[in-house]
Each structure stands twice: as C-alpha cells, then as structure tokens.
Design a protein that fits this description.
CATH topology of the largest domain: Rossmann fold
Oligomer: single chain
CATH class of the largest domain: Alpha Beta
CATH superfamily of the largest domain: NAD(P)-binding Rossmann-like Domain
Number of strands: 10
Bound molecules: nicotinamide-adenine-dinucleotide
Distance between the termini: 54 Å
Strand order of the largest sheet: 3-2-1-4-5-6-7-8
Helix content: 40-55%
Number of helices: 11
CATH architecture of the largest domain: 3-Layer(aba) Sandwich
Number of domains: 2
Largest sheet: 8 strands, mixed
Length: 293
C-alpha cells in the first residue's frame, strides 16, 4: 500500500536540487529546500523563478500557478525544517563521504516514518541506505537533468527497501507527471549504464581520429536521430561527471569495455569540463559554441 506524500524536503540546492524543488512545488507539495551554502539556495530560487517564468511564457503553467508554487518553497541552511516532511530527497554532491555526513545529521531530525530518497547517479543504494537509520524507508529516485523538462525518474530499490517505500515513491513520481522506471541496484542503473559508454566511445572516436568533433556530433544527430550529438551532450552533463560514471562502471563491473578514454581523462585534468567551465569539446566563450578539435 502506497502512502500519500504531503510535505517534501530537498537537501542540496545545486543543479538537480533546484529542479526537484521546482517540480515538487508545482505538484502541490510544501517544500523545505535546504543547502549548507546560503548563496546556493538563493541562486537556486532565482533559477526556479526563471525556469517557471519560461513555463509561463510557453503557456505550460499560469502566472498564478507559478506564484502559488514559489510560495510553497521555504528555504533554509539547517535541517530542522525536515522534521514534518513525509519524504526527503537528497541531492547533495556526488561524494559518498559527504552523503554519509548528511544522513548522520539529517536522520535524527526526521519523523520515524519519513521516506528518504537519494538522487545519486552512481553510488550503491544498498550501501547508502545502510548509512541511515532507515534502510527499509530508503531508495534511489534518480531524476534526470533538467528535472522540469525530463519525464523519466529511475526508481532503485536497495536490498533492504520495503515494497511500500517503493510503491509510495512510484505513485509520488507519477503524480508529479514523471514516468517512473524501475532499475536494479547495479552501477549507474539503466540510463547512465547505456548512455555514458556511448559518450565514452564517441570520445574514443575523436581520440583515434575517426572523425572531428563536428563530424561525430553531426553523424549521431543525422544518422541516429539523437537530439544532441554525444560530445555536445558530454559538455552539457559535465566531463568530470562523465568520467566519474565511467570509473564507477569500470570499477563496479570490472570489465575493460568500460575503460575511460584517455582523452576524456586529459580534458578533466585540464579542467575543461564542458559548458560549466566554458570549454570542453566546444569553446563556449563566443555567441556560438566552436568545436575545439
Ligand atoms: N548533474 C546531473 O546531470 C545529475 C543528474 C542526475 C543525478 N545527479 C545527482 O544529483 C546529486 C546532485 O548533483 P548536482 O549536479 O545537483 O550537484 P551540484 O554540485 O550542482 O550541487 C550539490 C549541492 O549540494 C550542496 N551540499 C554539499 N554538502 C551539503 C550538505 N552537507 N548539506 C546540504 N547541502 C550540501 C552543495 O552546496 C551544492 O549546492 C548527485 O548525487 C548527482 O550524482 C546529477
């Protein structure tokens, strides 16, 4: 039996946290939105305001719905606002140690029946759940970036996740207008397990001189009908994240087919991480992205 979710907590006001708070508030939930960095929450609220504004101008929502949704979000830098939440979604930095510290501080504040979901892209749900006081109420809810636009949520059960927890999360995600897909707790789940090796292969294709950046992206857009070329997409995701996921696949599945391309490693070493640093496989300093190879 699924439980009805009322107030939702979102911890971590980065790229993903703002999108999760956005869709929860639009879905009619009161939201407590927290980050240790005050500036991050303020910047995230501006992003939410801007993104909802875009939805208004495209007539997806009304100005009144936007106003109501923004009012539902309360921000803070301490965990006390999570005390009356029915579900908390953790979207802090992709670092197991950081997440572990967060759970240590968060769990004593939560109601005993509060569900706890992590948005991790790659860390074992079972291992993260074991760091909490509620492995049965813990699961993976992997939203896609950008959250307000992407329909999918991967739901991942840890070994201890109770069926009711999973069912509640499934109904909650569906009520937000998302399409939940169930994935087992294996490295990188479904989407990244398939997508990242394809991106890594595109980098190998570049590295071996089979094609230029432009040729590779054009080929996949025109030949496979992908909306973005794989190198463009890598820059959008962040090359550091692409490398981290490949490392998780390589280590977790111990198969050489997941070996990160040395060129991807070099770009990350150079801090050419894609859009967020202004340079990756494209240079973003001008009006239009320019291929760098
Ligand atoms: N970026 C993506 O495309 C993407 C997609 C799906 C899932 N994810 C996952 O979502 C999670 C967040 O990723 P992101 O890209 O939003 O990261 P991000 O770096 O943009 O944001 C992380 C936020 O966590 C905050 N934080 C760190 N320690 C904290 C603490 N102790 N308490 C509260 N807040 C804390 C940081 O201040 C930062 O604002 C990660 O687990 C990541 O793997 C990311």
């Amino acid at each position: 039996m699924a439980k009805k979710i009322g107030k939702v907590g979102v911890i971590g006001a980065g790229q993903m946290g703002n999108g999760i708070a956005h869709v929860c508030a639009l879905g009619g939930h009161d939201v407590y939105f927290m980050d240790v960095e005050k500036d991050r929450v303020q910047a995230a609220m501006q992003t939410i305001d801007r993104n909802m504004g875009r939805q208004v101008s495209r007539e997806r929502i009304t100005e009144a719905e936007k106003k109501k949704a923004l009012k539902r979000i309360v921000t803070g830098t301490t965990p006390d606002g999570f005390a009356d939440c029915a579900l908390v979604v953790e979207a802090v930095t992709e670092d197991e140690q950081v997440k572990k510290e967060v759970y240590k501080e968060l769990c004593p504040v939560l109601a005993p029946d509060c569900l706890l979901a992590t948005n991790t892209s790659s860390i074992s749900i079972t291992r993260l759940g074991a760091q909490t006081d509620r492995p049965g109420l813990f699961l993976g809810m992997h939203f896609m970036n950008p959250v307000p636009v992407m329909e999918l949520v991967e739901l991942i059960r840890g070994i201890a996740t109770e069926p009711e927890t999973f069912e509640t999360a499934r109904e909650f995600a569906a009520a937000l207008g998302k399409i939940p897909v169930s994935a087992e707790d294996f490295p990188a789940f479904i989407v990244n397990r398939i997508l990242l090796p394809m991106i890594n292969e595109a980098v190998y294709t570049l590295y071996e001189g089979v094609g230029s950046v432009e040729a590779i992206d054009h080929a996949m857009k025109l030949g496979a009908h992908h909306p973005m070329g794989p190198l463009e997409l890598a820059d959008f995701i962040g090359l550091d994240i692409c490398l981290a996921v490949m490392n998780v696949l390589h280590e977790g599945l111990a198969d050489s087919k997941y070996r990160p391309c040395p060129l991807l490693v070099k770009y990350v070493e150079a801090d050419w991480l894609g859009r967020k640093t202004g340079r990756g496989f494209y240079d973003y300093s001008g009006d239009e992205p320019v291929p760098t190879r």
